[in-house]
Specification:
The structure is a single chain. By secondary structure, this protein is α+β, with helices and mostly antiparallel strands. The chain folds into 2 domains: 147 residues, Beta Barrel (Elongation Factor Tu (Ef-tu), domain 3), CATH 2.40.30; 157 residues, Alpha-Beta Plaits (2-Layer Sandwich). Helices cover 17% and strands 33% of the residues. It contains 8 helices and 19 strands. Strands 9-10-11-8-2-12 form a 6-stranded mixed beta sheet. The termini are close together. The relative contact order is 0.19.
């Protein structure tokens, strides 16, 4: 199921309907133009005639029917449905699939995936050194993409540009793309951007990859993955599939990811509390980044639906109140 199909059958939940009292942030869009290095990402390569079938049986999304030259978002879960990693999956050839992921989880994920290979005709390897990874924002992304539809991929020579969810700044949508090129290939044109600017744009897109800070902390829906094209409920089994499906079909999901603004720094993995229960964490920071003007921090936070109605604090009683921002996409209402 593609991301456009998801959006057409989605509705706004209470998370998405909250509005921010902050000043409009559309003007930041002029700063989200250019190219950022992505040293925090790495690449696992699966190569062999069984590569697509093997990954299809391990990940939350359909890899077997993924066309060559196209991409998808997918999660790798434990038997309990908790995400151990997530990827931008790119099929570069009938027998080759790339998994772009957080570098801090690459070694352990490669080891775990390799444990399941058994007799499958596929070789798993760390291919990070074989690729340049760049993040493209604004006109730099627009220039290389055939379409802005998320997870659609444009190939140019040996490079791949994957359209990501845009950064949404008020009424402005800033295109984002992941670019993979050969080590000797000239990078795309555009001004250099810092990793901090890229991180902030990622927060404002509401879509991110799992890092060590939230390893095994969330099932895919707790990071809104079913609403942004990261879960296919019609594919066959994979580790944790029963838990993920039960959360969706039986209405047992109690936690979602929302965007917040904080006057002080937040750190991925940090606990969040409610004013009414300052001892029991109700949410976890997934990704945080400073606003370009230095006026506080924006973050993706995964928390309980109940606590969203109460309000969040970054610490115990003395912690700063977190301001809820509009979610930049609709959450999926059905499948």
């Amino acid at each position: 199921m593609n991301s456009m199909g998801l959006a057409s059958r989605a509705h706004l939940t209470p998370i998405a309907m909250h509005t921010s009292a902050s000043a409009p942030i559309d003007h930041f869009a002029t700063q989200l133009q250019g190219i950022a290095a992505l040293p925090h990402l790495g690449v696992i390569q699966a190569q062999g005639e069984d590569a697509a079938n093997f990954l299809h049986n391990q990940l939350s999304n359909d890899v077997l029917l993924l066309p060559v030259g196209q991409s998808r978002l997918a999660a790798f879960c434990s038997a309990k449905g908790r995400m151990q990693a997530s990827f931008v999956v790119i099929k570069t050839a009938p027998d080759t699939v790339l998994l772009v992921m957080s570098l801090d989880l690459l070694a352990q994920t490669l080891k775990r995936l390799s444990m399941f290979v058994l007799r499958a005709k596929v070789k798993m390897s760390d291919a990070t050194a074989q690729w340049q990874l760049r993040g493209l924002l604004g006109d730099s992304a627009r220039a290389l993409l055939d379409t802005a539809s998320p997870w659609q991929t444009t190939r140019n020579a040996e490079a791949h540009a994957v359209a990501l969810y845009p950064a949404v700044l008020g009424e402005t949508r800033v295109p984002r793309a992941l670019w993979l090129g050969a080590p000797t290939q000239a990078r795309p044109d555009g001004p250099e951007l810092s990793s901090a600017v890229w991180d902030w744009a990622e927060v404002m897109s509401g879509v991110t990859l799992v890092t060590q800070s939230v390893f095994e902390a969330l099932v895919p829906q707790m990071l809104n993955y079913e609403s942004v094209g990261g879960v296919n409920f019609k594919k066959g089994c994979y580790p944790g599939q029963e838990v993920v499906a039960r959360s969706q079909f039986r209405g047992t999901l109690k936690r979602r990811t929302a965007l917040v603004h904080s006057p002080t720094a937040l750190v991925a993995g940090q606990d969040v509390f409610t004013p009414t229960d300052p001892e029991q964490p109700c949410a976890t920071v997934v990704l945080s980044a400073a606003r370009p003007d230095g006026q506080g921090f924006d973050a993706m936070v995964s928390g309980t639906l109940e606590s969203l109605q109460t309000g969040w604090r970054a610490g115990h009683v003395q912690g700063d109140a977190l301001e809820l921002l509009p979610l930049p996409y609709a959450l999926l209402a059905d499948i």
